[in-house]
Amino acid sequence: MTNWCVITGGPSSGKTTTVNLLRDRGFSTTIEHARHYIDLRRIGGETVDEIRARQREFQRGVLEMQLKQEAALDPDQVVFLDRAIPDSLAYYRFLDLEPDPRLLQALKTVSYKKTFLLDLLPLESDYARTEDQADQQTIHRLLTEVYTSLPTPVIRVPVLSPDDRADFIVSSL
Hints:
It comes from Arthrobacter russicus. This is ATPase. Pfam families: AAA_28. This protein is about 50% helix and about 10% strand. The protein is globular, with a radius of gyration of 15 Å. The chain has a five-stranded parallel β-sheet, sandwiched between helices. By secondary structure, it is α/β, with parallel strands linked by helices. The chain contains eight helices and five strands; from the N terminus they run E-H-E-H-H-H-E-H-H-E-H-E-H. The mean pLDDT is about 95. It has a single domain, classed as P-loop containing nucleotide triphosphate hydrolases (Rossmann fold, 3-Layer(aba) Sandwich), CATH 3.40.50.
């Protein structure tokens, strides 16, 4: 088992805010790859609509980034991941896409110390987040199903202030 802890939840659940607070407290963290993928493609001249129109390509690109990132991490180091490989399965299911074979293979070997599933906050839209409230809830449900099917403890993080959420997670290590 690794010493990695996943921070996950549906869109607009405060994942990145929480991960950034943990980073500010001295913990090692990762970035959220869907947003990073979008940002890289936008730099290349594509619009978010163009990127999102090719969902299979988008999901594969995000998965590839996640696979590379997790392969490069030290399994003994405590790291908080802003989403992880299993999130991809939830999104493939949400989009009704056949999961990539590399994803299915990776899911057989993923190993996390704990998964922190953040309760949803009110949906806030931005340039990269295109889901509506129904999508937000469906994705959160799918993430819950995926992570509870894995042999990793899942800890639900209630709606609290950002600092209190970070405190809750640190005290649950």
